Fold:
Amino acid sequence: MQTQLRASTSLCLIVPVLRDRFDPFWCEYVALRERFPNVPVIAVAMAGVSSMQAVLRLSQLGVSDLLDANEGLRVDEIRAALSKTYSDATAMRVWTLIEEAFARQGSAFPDDLTTMMKRSLRYAHEHLPASKLAALMQMHERTLRKYCETRRFPSPQLLAGWARLLIAALYIEERGRTFVSIARLLGYPTVGALRKQITRYTNRSPKQLRDAGAMAVSLQLFCEALQAGATSRPMNDERPRLILLA
Structure:
């Protein structure tokens, strides 16, 4: 079991919550999160358990999602919870890889871009136009474009495209996944659309990207794209920075 928890890339634990206050689950869950922080967990408030009490407690423990079984569980609710949890966990895995890639180069991901990148990754399983990304940032689209232009960051649309590509690269490296299944999972209209984006961003065919190491190549190109803008920023930049709430 421990080996599976460490090695699996698509494992999600579903655990029952049997009591409102003290439950042996709390202690076991805390130990589980400390040892395997990257494994998403969905808690189920069983019949007789106050979902509100459970929400307050579980929010402190960092559970991925909570289902309320007091009125029964519908298949669509379970499916939606699993889909959301898996997408969020995948986004966090890619974000960790991005931070590690910048750290290896002796730099750090730009603070001014962190919130935007995290939200782009979180919603990378669907087409994310600049207007929707701006809405997620609680900004007008024109304001967001101007912000990126002023800071010499990639455009919002390009950043969202990189987020989608990095998620795709992670899937490409998972055993058994086909490009057709990846395109479907990420909401591309056709597998051809995925192939075109891979070629446009990496100058490689999907097969060439897989053979070269999809994640490593994509991360390297992404870092270079951001650092190219960074080298053109003025030194001692004292322009006011936009504070974005996570």
